[in-house]
Each structure stands twice: as structure tokens, then as C-alpha cells.
Design goal:
It is a single chain. This protein has 136 residues and is of the alpha/beta class. Helix content is 25%, strand content 38%. The protein is built from three helices and eight strands. It has a four-stranded mixed sheet with strand order 1-4-3-2, with helices on one face. Strands 5-8-7-6 form a four-stranded mixed sheet, covered by helices on one side. The protein starts with 6 loop residues before the first strand and ends with a strand.
């Protein structure tokens, strides 16, 4: 079987702020931006990896979600515990310096983890946890 990861989904509660974080802070290209107002689905990704994307989407819009589930999702997003993603770079310290120079919400400076990786953590505009790991 030949299966690859094509896209991951992260919620946003402010599409313009999320777009600014992924495009301007992380340097991702915008591949698609559909909808209007807060009901926007924005697809972003690294320019040199056209087959891998992150879709930034409005939370809890699935018609199968109950009002209680919507409230829970909103509460978890506000606490930063609803969603996250792991990214990687060959230059973690350089990436962290750029994040510090932006208005990114720093959660953890580059750290050698006891499980064998070096990484840092920030939150995007919606509170999603973004961990960035050192490659190589």
C-alpha cells in the first residue's frame, strides 16, 4: 500500500490572524482560501513540499456536532488543548529566533527532551500547540 499524509486540519477562530501566523511567521505559502468572514477554509504549506498541507478551518461547523460539543471545542481551543501539530526543521535555533522576533506565543524554548529529540513549542493565533523538532 502506498499511502502518504496529504493534509492535517487545525481549527481557527480568527482566519486573518491564523493566516498571518502561518504565512508571515512560519513562511508557508497559501494554497487555497475559500469562504468568507469567519467561515474560511485556508490551506497552507511549505513551498518546497507541495503535497503536504495544513487546512485551517472554522471549528465545530460539522452539522453532526451537538451544542454541548461545540461549547467543549470552544473551551478547549481557548485553553490551547484542542489541537496541535508537530513540525520539523534543520535549524531549530534559527527558527526559534524568528518566532521570538514575531508575536508568536512562546510555550517552550528549544530543549533537549528526555525522549531523545530537541524541540520548542509555540501556540498559533487560535491556541493550537505547534511543536517544532530539530532534524538530524
Amino acid at each position: 500500500m502506498d499511502i502518504t499524509i496529504h493534509a492535517s486540519f487545525l481549527p481557527h477562530d480568527d482566519p486573518d490572524a491564523s493566516l498571518a501566523f502561518y504565512r508571515d511567521t512560519l513562511g508557508f505559502e497559501v494554497r487555497n482560501d475559500v469562504g468568507r468572514g469567519t467561515m474560511r477554509w485556508i490551506t497552507v504549506g511549505p513551498a518546497d513540499q507541495p503535497g503536504i498541507s495544513i487546512v485551517l478551518h472554522p471549528p465545530a461547523v460539522d452539522p453532526g456536532i451537538t451544542d454541548d460539543e461545540r461549547r467543549t471545542i470552544t473551551e478547549m481551543m481557548a485553553k490551547g488543548t484542542y489541537a496541535g501539530i508537530l513540525l520539523a526543521t534543520k535549524d531549530l535555533d534559527g527558527a526559534f529566533e524568528r518566532l521570538q522576533a514575531s508575536d508568536a506565543d512562546i510555550v517552550q524554548e528549544p530543549t533537549d527532551q528526555p525522549y531523545g529529540v530537541r524541540d520548542c513549542a509555540v501556540r498559533d493565533a487560535a491556541g493550537n500547540l505547534i511543536r517544532i523538532q530539530q532534524l538530524g
